[in-house]
User: Which sequence fits this backbone?
């Protein structure tokens, strides 16, 4: 068997221009970074304008997770790029920063290490070394090596994965509901959240459909910035009608002004989704009919 010799090649031979070649290639091959980071990345935008400059690549962890800033170079790291990274971090509200270069100055690695030590989850900073190799006349093979990362990165990955799983679970459930309901109730395509709210103009209140691990619920509330007593004053006008129209509904307390109805079920079991969707649609209709009717004014 004849074996070839692995040799490192100059990055400028692989990508002639940083912005014209390296950044476009990397944006199309984020799976290469995903492998070394152990998280899945989705491209959001390349050359995204931030103030007077442009961030090389902006991505997100899979399923709408934390925003990721990727700054790449074909030369040794410099102070200019470090300053841009810190500027982009604030402008983009990114939580994960990845700095890629073929060589890192010791003080720049120290800066990344200091950022990881003096910021907490969800912030994470990476220094990643890029190289390219070739065997004889084969295709070039880029490699990425993580030089700096947060000490708690493994735990952060688990939290990101759990968040991604929850996002996918929520999106799939509401998509299922939208396809089953006669009227999708205004659900946006791809909606992913634990709560879906419907504003009832006549009552100036919101009907909230709530997806939990142990079941689904519906409750009435107002705006988040309102005082509870103001919300309760409006809900109280419909109290008797709600209790009469909605079997199993209750008001937890006068300090918690929410009329609540719940269905206890294992929401992770997709075999339950039809009955959950039907229950939510039926109950939501009852809530809305009451809140669109005339309130009962007590003397």
Assistant:
């Amino acid at each position: 068997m004849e074996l070839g010799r692995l040799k490192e090649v100059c990055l400028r031979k692989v990508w002639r221009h940083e912005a014209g070649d390296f950044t476009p290639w990397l944006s199309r091959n984020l799976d290469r970074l995903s492998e070394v980071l152990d998280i899945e990345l989705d491209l959001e935008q390349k050359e995204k304008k931030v103030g007077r400059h442009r961030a090389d690549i902006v991505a997100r962890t899979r399923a709408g997770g934390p925003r990721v800033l990727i700054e790449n170079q074909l030369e040794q790291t410099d102070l200019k790029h470090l300053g841009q990274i810190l500027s982009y971090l604030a402008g983009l509200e990114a939580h994960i920063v990845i700095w890629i270069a073929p060589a890192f100055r010791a003080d720049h690695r120290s800066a990344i290490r200091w950022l990881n030590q003096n910021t907490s989850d969800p912030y994470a900073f990476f220094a990643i070394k890029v190289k390219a190799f070739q065997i004889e006349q084969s295709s070039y093979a880029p490699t990425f090596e993580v030089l700096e990362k947060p000490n708690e990165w493994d735990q952060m990955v688990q939290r990101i994965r759990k968040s991604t799983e929850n996002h996918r679970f929520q999106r799939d459930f509401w998509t299922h509901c939208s396809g089953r309901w006669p009227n999708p109730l205004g659900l946006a395509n791809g909606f992913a959240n634990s709560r879906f709210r419907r504003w009832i103009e006549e009552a100036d209140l919101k009907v909230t459909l709530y997806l939990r691990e142990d079941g689904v619920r519906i409750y009435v509330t107002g705006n988040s910035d309102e005082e509870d007593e103001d919300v309760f004053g409006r809900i109280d006008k419909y109290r008797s009608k709600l209790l009469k129209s909605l079997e199993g509904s209750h008001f937890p307390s006068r300090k918690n002004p929410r009329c609540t109805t719940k269905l206890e079920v294992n929401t992770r079991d997709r075999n339950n989704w039809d009955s959950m969707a039907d229950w939510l649609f039926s109950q939501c209709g009852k809530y809305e009919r009451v809140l669109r009717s005339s309130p009962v004014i007590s003397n």
Q: What stands out?
A: The longest strand covers residues 124-135.
